[in-house]
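FAQ
Q: What does a multi-component entry look like?
A: The components come first, one per line:
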Amino acid sequence: MNWAFFIIVAWFSLGLELGLRDALGLGSSGIAPSFAIALLVFVAMHAPRHIALWTGLALGLALDLTRAGVSAGETGVSTIAVIGPGALGCLLAAQLIVTVRAMMMRRSPLAAAAMGFSAAAIANLVIAGVLTARSWYDPAIEVSATAEMTSRLASAVYTGVLTPIVVLALAPLTPFFGFAPGAVRAS
Amino acid sequence: MRRHSDHTSKAFLLAVIALLLLSFAPARLSRWTRSLQDPAVVLVAPVAHSASVLAHFLRPAQRGPAPPKELRDTLRERDRLARRYLVALQRIEDLERRVESLQRGVSVQPDIDITPIVASVIGSSSDPRDGVLMVRAGTSQGVQARVSVAVATGEHLVGRVVDARARHSYVLPITRAPHEEWMQGAVITRDKPLGWLCQIRAARDGTLAGDLEADAVGVDIGQTVRLRDPSWPQAAQMLILGTIERIYPKENAPLRRTVVVRPAIDIERVSEVVLRTPAVTTQANADADESDAQ
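Then the predicted structure of the entire assembly, as tokens:
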């Protein structure tokens, strides 16, 4: 894969993720789509297995690094950095896509939507799981597992709606990504 | 070829183990990772800001049609003067208390001047559940965490700065504050300029809701609610929280009433904020920077 081109597209998608979140979000519910996961779906549908996994790790890490978790600690409300859950979540999401992609029609918008939803659901499930587990022993993190899961699953549905649009927009750029021909079948 | 593949697998495994450890490391042990966030945000900021500008153009923070410019300026001026009047009233109360304290020999906090810092909103956290706004002004401009407050369109309180980095800061909107964070507001009525007190908190639907003072009279829908909370910085006192959207009796105590307050603007979609920062703090920072330079 052409990593330089991927980095430019990832940079752009992460910018859209942060910049358009408020506009695309559903009020104060915390439900919003993810451009980064939509990009991950596109790459994981075309790239060899190990590239797809590294891509998941990199995109997830980028999401973790641009995240500002709110913590109501003893010193008042502040932000905390939680590096890892997003990366692990996106890694599992990439693995899921690599596993099922052979059974999917890559050009079908419905397949892209299904993969977008599944990938976002897996990534969000891991993030919610890690944060919930941490909240048991780390006073800096307070989460309500039910509320987390509800809004995160709704975000996954929203990402599923966005994914075909992103995949369609990225399709003409496929040659620039430099995916090895036959990589999907070989892996 | 095979050796290269083995190296890649080992690196991948190590990366996963490191991320697993970091995921479960308590916040006090992983504090150093905050320094990794700053370069990431600086790199993404140009695209995020451009997207944010487009988003705010398509979906502005102002609810309903925007009034003409002259009227908008007049309304802002009215809000500014109303706040100055209320702050003056509150100051009289404070001074009376201060006189009492001085008579008892207790030292009092000096007056603080406010420095406004205009900052554009770059974007938000990558996790939509966090709800923080990222703004382009940081400690290098004098912004201070938990001291600076963000306002928009004149006198509307957006939220408090919860984290200040060198070049950017994070503002937590009042409508996204944690559930355990209560705010004290004052419902301004004709008969009571300093307002009837209410304890409100974010209802997570873009409004603030809570209990109204038991003996409050003359409180009605559409009245302005301002912040009057000693736990908030002085720079935030008497800023507008919103207007009353609903009043209804509490379910378990019918004689008490619950008020629902909706901010006049969609504060999670503002494109620019003014960070009100105490000038004392700004001066102290400048002094500290100077001494560091020496």
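Q: Is there any commentary attached?
A: Sometimes. For this entry: Chain A is about 70% helix and 5% strand.
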